[in-house]
Amino acid sequence: MHSVQKTIKKRIDCRGIGLHSGKDVLLMLSPLPEDSGIWFRRTDLPHKPYIKATADNVTQTSLCTTLGNNGNAISTVEHLMAAFAGLGIHNILVEVDAPEVPIFDGSARCYVELLEEAGVVDQKAPGEVFKLDRKFSITQEDKKITYYPNKELIISFTIDFDHPLLKEQEYTFRFSKDNFLEEISKARTFGFLKDVEAMKKCGFARGGSLENAVVIDDDGILNPEGLRYPNEFVRHKILDFLGDLYLYGKPMRGHFVVYKSGHTLNNLLLKALKNGKTKHDAALSPLLEPPKISLENTRCKISSA
User: Fold this and answer.
1) Residue 215 bridge partners (DSSP)
2) pLDDT, position 285
3) CA-to-CA distance for 291 and 62, rounded, in angstroms?
4) Residue 243 zone, left/alpha/beta (φ > 0; ψ -120 to 50; rest)
5) In the predicted model, what is the mean pLDDT of residues 94-118?
6) What pLDDT, on the 0 to 100 scale, is given for residue 2?
7) Distance CA 262, CA 295 (A)
8) β-strand pairing of 92-96 with 38-42
9) Within 10 Å of residue 249's Cβ, how many Cβ atoms?
10) Which residues contact 225 (CB under 8 A, 6 or more apart)?
11) Where is the domain boundary, 108, 128, 148?
């Protein structure tokens, strides 16, 4: 599964709605040279600051994954990062004129369409991967991620919510581009109606709707079109996990067995790995942080620039 680095062929832009602000967002993607990495830029702020997409720059994991530095922030990056992971994008600039990226339909599908419209191209530099040669695990209350050495990237995820539709839902995903496009990229974010109403009262999820999330009440799903997969909920959690994992800075290899993890534990996993002595001998220490709620999540308009 060794490969070369990739970027996009041309600059491209689109507009969408921000999940929490409810405001229109202009997003622009531009190619970057080899070994640049993934960068975000807030074009609406003075000096148009850059923020690198790395686990060290994760500043918030409540409701979504937020990147930031020097007081500047960009939120809800996990679905876009998952699209980069799925298509193997190593070097790219993401510019937005708002504090969050568009939510589109609540999955990574629109981002995939945007990247494919721009054209994914190979670069000359090799694409390094990260892997360990031993098992380890990290826990937070009843949440747990266990890693087993493997030449491929495999994610076995279990969710367990107090609702009949989300009780002990499990799925194992074996990574490849085709598998990502077919099995994971179209899975939408989800939330409970009672939580969405509470968040809107607090000024969050102002852009949330049945167009960008699967909404669940006590009796079932409110979306008239139903689910895209019978187990769409756990597939979306895998999408989030892929996006968060890609903030390590290079693709991962190994079998991750994940139980009820969200953005907080995902980020703690990466920070534990980054604190390791070497890539083959990670000195993982117990890391604890107050648990955070995880609810993420839109309509796709694509135009090339």
Assistant:
1) 191
2) 34
3) 9
4) alpha
5) 96
6) 54
7) 9
8) parallel
9) 17
10) none
11) 128
Which CATH number does the domain housing residue 87 bear?
A: 3.30.230.20
Task: Report which of 205, 238, 275 is spatially closest to residue 62, judged by C-alpha positions.
Answer: 205
Measured CA to CA, the distance from residue 252 to residue 249 in angstroms comes to 9
DSSP letter, residue 71: T
Does 297 reside within a domain?
no
Asked if 250 contacts 224 with a C-beta cutoff of 8 angstroms, the reply is no
Active site residue 280: no
**Model confidence band, residue 38 (pLDDT cutoffs 50, 70, 90):** very high
Q: Helices 78-87 and 109-118: crossing angle, nearest 10°?
A: 50
How many Cβ atoms are within 10 Å of 188's Cβ, its own excluded? 28
How many structural domains does the chain have?
Answer: 2
Length of the chain: 305
How far apart are the C-alpha atoms of 114 and 118, rounded to whole Å?
A: 6
Full domain range(s) for residue 119 = 3-128
Catalytic position from the list 20, 47, 263, 280: 263
Residues 38 and 143 in one domain: no
Statement to judge: residues 75 and 108 lie in one domain = yes
| 230 contacts 253 by C-beta, under 8 angstroms | no
Predicted structure pTM score: 0.88
